[in-house]
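Retro notes (design track)

What went well: tokenization of the new backbones is finally stable.
What didn't: we kept losing track of which sequence belonged to which structure.
Fix going forward: every design gets posted as structure first, then sequence, in one message. First example under the new rule, 322 residues:
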């Protein structure tokens, strides 16, 4: 209920005139303003607040809450720019406190006036000076020995957990009160261990590493058995010519394909392992060929980029522009 300054002033006066009785204030308020028996009158909490504000400010005007909206001036924009340049990793809240402006004004200046946006730091493996030369030599060797028409197989394994994953940012719960909603998940979710090889002509796989229908951690014996009994047999059926096979140590080549595959698989929300495996078979068969062609093309392109960059990290790959 919104009360006018006149109504607040009357309630305060009635409070002091009726020996600090809140019931007497409400009765006088109802009579003075002609309010019906069941009509709204100020409650005890409101009267306490008005009286407290009056004792502090000697005013019946509603006390403003929070910081007043500040006017953006060229001087403030300049101050924000200088503050950000001095400490670019400092939080906007701390910048706002240091500059004595509201956090809202701080963000408005950053976005609307300076066109600054928050960027996340990328964590990469630290290289030693010797690593740079080794990377260059490896790239040069591959480019010299890898024929243009060679069929390159990128391979790796990944885990598909039956529970999938939960993105809490995409799970809001709208309510007047906190429902204290819990999302329970098993400590050790059922999973399958999947291996695939991805050349530009199509996918070999999936192959499931398991014993007695249960997923297992891949060891050397199981891996060699898969190569001999599954992968080599698939190659013979395909009647391929010049083949190059990459195994492990270069997951970046197919990380995007795995991410794409997991996103597609969990759209089906499988409830046990058999449907999960069936969905993986289904989605692997539907991986677009253009995605595989692009993966191999990017591999050759990045070999050249690594050499041109003296073996250092490829920042245009790590920091992609939209």
């Amino acid at each position: 209920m919104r009360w006018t300054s006149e109504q607040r002033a009357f309630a305060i006066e009635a409070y002091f005139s009726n020996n600090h009785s809140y019931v007497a204030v409400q009765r006088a308020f109802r009579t003075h303003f002609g309010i019906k028996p069941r009509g709204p009158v100020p409650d005890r909490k409101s009267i306490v607040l008005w009286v407290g504000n009056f004792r502090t400010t000697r005013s019946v005007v509603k006390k403003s809450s929070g910081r007043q909206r500040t006017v953006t001036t060229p001087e403030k924009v300049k101050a924000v720019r200088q503050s950000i340049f001095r400490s670019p990793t400092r939080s906007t809240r701390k910048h706002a406190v240091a500059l004595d402006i509201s956090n809202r004004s701080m963000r408005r200046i950053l976005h609307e006036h300076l066109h600054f946006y928050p960027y996340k730091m990328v964590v990469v493996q630290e290289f030693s000076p010797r690593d740079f030369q080794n990377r260059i030599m490896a790239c040069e060797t591959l480019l010299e020995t890898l024929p243009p028409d060679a069929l390159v197989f990128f391979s790796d394994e990944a885990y598909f957990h039956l529970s999938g994953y939960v993105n809490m940012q995409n799970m809001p719960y709208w309510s007047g009160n906190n429902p204290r909603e819990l999302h329970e998940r098993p400590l050790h979710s059922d999973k399958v261990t999947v291996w695939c090889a991805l050349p530009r002509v199509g996918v070999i796989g999936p192959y499931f590493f398991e014993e007695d229908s249960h997923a297992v951690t891949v060891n050397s014996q199981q891996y060699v058995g898969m190569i001999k009994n599954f992968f080599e047999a698939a190659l013979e059926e395909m009647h391929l010519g010049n083949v190059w096979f990459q195994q492990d140590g270069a997951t970046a080549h197919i990380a995007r394909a795995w991410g794409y595959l997991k996103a597609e698989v969990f759209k089906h929300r499988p409830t046990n392992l058999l449907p999960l495996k069936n969905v993986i078979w289904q989605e692997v068969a539907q991986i677009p060929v253009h995605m595989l062609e692009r993966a191999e093309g990017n591999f050759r392109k990045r070999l050249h980029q690594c050499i041109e960059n003296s073996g250092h990290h490829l920042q245009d790959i790590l920091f992609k522009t939209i």
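Added context from the reviewer: Strands lie at 151-161, 191-198, 204-211, 214-215, 243-247.
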